[in-house]
Design brief:
By secondary structure, the chain is mainly alpha-helical. The chain contains 10 helices and 2 strands.
């Protein structure tokens, strides 16, 4: 869960409130009832609270705040090393009166006390974030998924490589993301062609 948790936190802290839940949703749906399930459910709804507030959907914001608070209320204040001690009071204020909340500064999420950003993520969390951002921004998710697979091969073989570097750049360099994506796409297409050529030789 750690890579998905950290990726979603970094995406949320970058202001991509709606996209953040995509890092957690598959994990949440696969869980049986229990603390982890309530934790992820609450975090997903917390990010939805902040997202709805951006469009001043106060009734939706208020209802989600009440629901998210219910999922998180019995968990320890630092469950999974996330700062629920900041999230829960915020949700209480929103549930009481969402229009009175300072929406310019919703609480940041921390993990092990660190306010995560994209630069904080290791490869596994960066790979998750890359998939989330590809889906949110309309890039070909298959290209990014293949780039992640090729990057994992690079790490296994020699510890670094062009796919690894481009994936980190895709996530970390927002302004250059379209350019980086096109380079990733071109490299992926070349690798796919090589794979097809090898299959043709030995198939």
């Amino acid at each position: 869960m750690d890579a998905h948790l950290r990726a979603g936190i970094a995406v949320y802290n970058a202001g991509r409130y709606h996209a953040a839940h995509d890092a957690w949703e598959d994990r949440w749906l696969a869980l049986d009832a229990g603390d982890d399930e309530r934790f992820l459910h609450g975090l997903i709804q917390f990010t939805a609270v902040v997202h709805h507030a951006q469009s001043e959907n106060w009734s939706g914001t208020q209802g989600l705040a009440e629901s998210a608070g219910g999922y998180l209320e019995d968990l320890p204040p630092d469950y999974r090393d996330v700062n629920l001690d900041a999230v829960r009071p915020f949700l209480e204020r929103v549930a009481a009166d969402p229009e009175a909340v300072d929406w310019a500064h919703p609480p940041k999420l921390t993990h092990h006390g660190d306010t995560l950003d994209y630069e904080s993520l290791d490869f596994d969390a960066t790979a998750v974030a890359a998939g989330v951002l590809a889906e949110a921004d309309g890039y070909d998710e298959g290209i990014v998924a293949d780039a992640v697979a090729y990057a994992r091969d690079e790490l296994a073989e020699r510890g670094d490589g062009r796919f690894v570097g481009l994936l980190f750049a895709f996530v970390r360099e927002r302004e250059r993301r379209p350019v980086v994506y096109h380079r990733l796409r071109d490299h992926v297409r070349r690798e796919r062609q090589k794979d097809d050529d090898v299959k043709g030789l030995f198939g």
